[in-house]
């Protein structure tokens, strides 16, 4: 077993995203073989860029605030207490539509490199 405390994990600025930070909770460096799990915080007005994860299933669960996820065909609002599953290879973009920061957990399987 390995006990993890969120506050002990460094908050990392994601360079190619506006206002996005994350903390690795579980990843390959900690011995995970089947998934990656991290905490993310997106500042008000923050957003990603359209991208995909060709080999990874991807699940986002919002714990405070509200996100909007878009792909080429649809757009979904994801408020606190709900999540969204993104299929491998699906192009998507994440936008913080909340007045203030939005916090969420992200899981990938298999683990991200």
Automatic annotation (TrEMBL):
Domain of life assignment: Bacteria
Entry keyword Isomerase: no
GO molecular function, one term: metal ion binding
Name assigned to this protein: Cupin domain-containing protein
Pfam families: Cupin_2 (PF07883)
Database matches in SUPFAM superfamilies: RmlC-like cupins
Alphabetic keyword roster: Metal-binding
Keyword Metal-binding belongs to the record: yes
Domain Cupin type-2, residue spans: 40-108
């Amino acid at each position: 077993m390995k006990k993890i405390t969120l506050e002990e994990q460094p908050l990392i600025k994601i360079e190619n995203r506006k206002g996005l930070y994350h903390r690795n909770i579980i990843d390959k460096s900690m011995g995970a073989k089947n998934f990656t799990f991290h905490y993310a915080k997106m500042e008000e007005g923050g957003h990603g860029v359209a991208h995909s994860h060709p080999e990874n299933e991807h699940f986002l669960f919002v714990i405070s605030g509200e996100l909007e996820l878009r792909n080429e065909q649809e757009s979904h609002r994801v408020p606190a207490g709900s999540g969204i599953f993104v299929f491998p290879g699906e192009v998507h973009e994440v936008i913080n539509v909340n007045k203030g920061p939005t916090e969420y957990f992200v899981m990938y399987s298999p683990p991200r490199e």
